[in-house]
UniProtKB/TrEMBL annotation:
<feature type="domain" description="Iron hydrogenase small subunit">
    <location>
        <begin position="21"/>
        <end position="80"/>
    </location>
</feature>
<dbReference type="Pfam" id="PF02256">
    <property type="entry name" value="Fe_hyd_SSU"/>
</dbReference>
<dbReference type="InterPro" id="IPR009016">
    <property type="entry name" value="Fe_hydrogenase"/>
</dbReference>
<keyword id="KW-0560">Oxidoreductase</keyword>
<dbReference type="InterPro" id="IPR036991">
    <property type="entry name" value="Fe_hydrogenase_ssu_sf"/>
</dbReference>
<dbReference type="InterPro" id="IPR003149">
    <property type="entry name" value="Fe_hydrogenase_ssu"/>
</dbReference>
<protein>
    <submittedName>
        <fullName>Fragment of hydrogen dehydrogenase (NADP+), delta subunit (Hydrogenase active site) (Part 3/3)</fullName>
        <ecNumber>1.12.1.3</ecNumber>
    </submittedName>
</protein>
<dbReference type="GO" id="GO:0050583">
    <property type="term" value="F:hydrogen dehydrogenase (NADP+) activity"/>
</dbReference>
Length: 82
């Protein structure tokens, strides 16, 4: 299955986000605020997060390893409609 979305303004204008009523200026302002907030954070990359590094070191092992894959990935099972 391949899911393709083309939300107005990108993901920031997608489902679950505040509705913009077609006003692209709202989306531009929202995107600018999110990028501005992101730039102000001292820790911006998950692979540099000391808690994540420790989790892999102490429990999960190697990224993409068997235990990490078992615990962090999901699979889907078809279900019969009731």
């Amino acid at each position: 299955m391949i899911e393709i979305m083309a939300c107005p303004g990108g993901c920031i204008g997608g489902g679950g986000q505040p509705y913009h009523h077609g006003n692209m200026e709202i989306l531009k302002a929202r995107a600018a605020a999110i990028y501005r907030e992101d730039r102000s954070k001292p820790l911006r990359k998950s692979h540099e997060n000391l808690a994540i590094i420790g989790l892999y070191k102490d429990y999960l092992g190697e990224p993409y390893g068997k235990k990490a894959h078992q615990l962090l990935h999901t699979s889907y099972t078809g279900r019969k409609k009731i």
